[in-house]
């Protein structure tokens, strides 16, 4: 007499929810809590003051924490003012990733190329020898400067890769990087955040030391007649300086030491970059001069830059607030960079051929009715005010909700129907769509691409105050009583609610912006592995002779681990998971009537206990993020099998490979595995009208009886943007089947 039990298929829908942790945090403080007394504390503080680095929300910097390749590129780009971007198509990043822009800058600058498999691996920690290669590409050292000792001074010379040996010699010889006290270089050791700051600071100092001229006092520099050629760089580091009749082969730096003072350039040609770090509201005067790229990047305050006479520049990039004036169109292209903080102020006076706006929610005043922009390209939301005019405006998708004091003569682009016109007094700026009163809290809610989020719910906790964002993603609470409040913002379809604290004081409005991340797949949770005995181990018995007619298996314990599609264990370093087990076990008594018993789970160890009963039928294993309690993946597991699947895309088709043992059929102490005879697909697609269903039988498949695997090709619903769920059922013989773990095809 034997025992026989067949499994029934079961549909379970699951959601994928992952947290994206942006690098370096968003903490702004006058001093990090963990750098005082640190060997690199001085350099770290200086870089913080210059705006190159931020800390974490808890006020720390974590100087000994390793840094990734993407974070390293971001710091290089900031400190060396690399702005131009190349077109890139690495397989492991998308245009929506924060690091995409940094990688494109690195490729354009020539210090990053990627790997042979078309990846750039931005999330991989960077090693010391990899950092050396990047630095050597940025600032190569002449062979004559190389140390005669080469690499022989290091005990671990042989561990330095061939591709990194020349770069290590270069950075060591120049004093940018050093070895350790034990005589090693440790090329494969991951570089820390503190080491990165120090190494890049030394690189900048060496670059600055190559400047041929530093003018740090008031006065005139350059010949009264004729032209002097300066082959290196020039730095002006004092107010009241005049540069005249010179051609600079390198860069021109207007240092922050100029303060709010004036600087004059007469008949000057700069073939490199011109970087403006200093100057005030009546400061930088350029007359009859020629420039390639001018970068305005002052830490605090506004800079006034005036172009007179025949002055020309191919491009002017504004990374800080500025007032730009010109009589003609010599400043050919003006870029208001995305590096500019939100709600910044730009004033333009004169004639401009092309202005490109990349900064979010910037206020641009066109001063005077003679100010004209021939072509204004808005990539982000902007507020255009003043008496000037725009001949043609191109409104990008991300610029929906922009406003103009005067409607442009021609409006084009994907967002052309979303702009609005608002009247302000001359010289004024566009207000928010809702007025901002003195004692208020206001701001914007937008996604990671800076697009406004409409109807997000903003709540002042523990009060009656609540509102929704308008069509421009803006909100305002007027006339709040003085005090400290916590604001929370939520929106369906976006990752967890964000909260922040503000202090309201009399007659001082407070701005607080929120960025929400849309709930989408970033890192797929692909499968859950259940560790357990091969099959349930039964006590030796003869069913017809047991005392109570109940078949009793040995006690079992299950453990689970969650993996991504690259088979990386999600072990808490990136996402902290808790596991829940939901299901029933069956006890079959002598007359064949089942009695269900609940499963139990050890809260501390996460182990699943079946007790002393006969059979576990199906178990739903649910992984949750501990930080936000979001369900991240739900799998249906048949006990006694390890249903791991891999999914790949081939020529537009989905290829599934199912791993695991088939249903064991047990007769007393004997068991056998039946042959596979069918594969059935149940397809479910969600749309606005509900679920569409279709069943497809797979007639051609490959079955490996040794490995117990099934492989076949299958095309799901066409990608129409709806969510799809696929359930796979593998049939054995005539009446036994397994429903494998279902998965979701997310909209592209």
Plain-language structure description:
This protein is mostly beta strands. The protein folds into 4 domains: 41-208, no CATH class; 211-421; 440-516, Immunoglobulin-like (Sandwich), CATH 2.60.40; 525-745, no CATH class. Helix content is 9%, strand content 37%. Strands 7-8-10-12-14-13-11-9 form an 8-stranded parallel beta barrel. β36 and β37 form a beta hairpin. α2 runs parallel beside α6. The model is unreliable at 1-30, 142-146, 423-438, 520-560, 571-673, 719-723 and 733-748 (pLDDT under 50).
Structural class: mainly beta
Radius of gyration: 33 Å
What is the share of helical residues?
Answer: under 10%
Strand content: 35-45%
- Structural domains: how many: 4
SSE layout:
Blueprint: H1 41-49, H2 69-80, H3 100-109, H4 128-138, H5 162-173, H6 193-209, E1 213-215, E2 219-221, E3 228-230, E4 234-236, E5 241-248, E6 252-254, E7 263-276, E8 284-287, E9 290-296, E10 303-308, E11 312-318, E12 322-326, E13 333-336, E14 345-357, E15 362-366, E16 372-378, E17 382-386, E18 389-395, E19 403-404, E20 410-412, E21 420-421, E22 440-447, E23 457-460, E24 466-468, E25 474-478, E26 483-490, E27 498-504, E28 510-511, E29 514-516, E30 525-531, E31 557-564, E32 577-588, E33 594-598, E34 600-601, E35 608-609, E36 615-625, E37 631-638, E38 645-650, E39 653-659, E40 665-667, E41 670-672, E42 676-687, E43 690-698, E44 702-704, E45 709-714, E46 723-732, E47 736-739, E48 743-745
Parallel strand pairs: 1-4, 2-5, 3-5, 4-6, 5-7, 6-7, 7-8, 7-9, 8-10, 9-11, 10-12, 11-13, 12-14, 13-14, 14-15, 14-16, 15-17, 16-18, 17-19, 18-20, 19-21, 22-28, 22-29
Antiparallel strand pairs: 22-25, 23-24, 23-26, 26-27, 30-31, 31-35, 32-33, 32-36, 34-35, 36-37, 38-39, 39-45, 40-41, 42-43, 42-46, 44-45, 46-47, 46-48
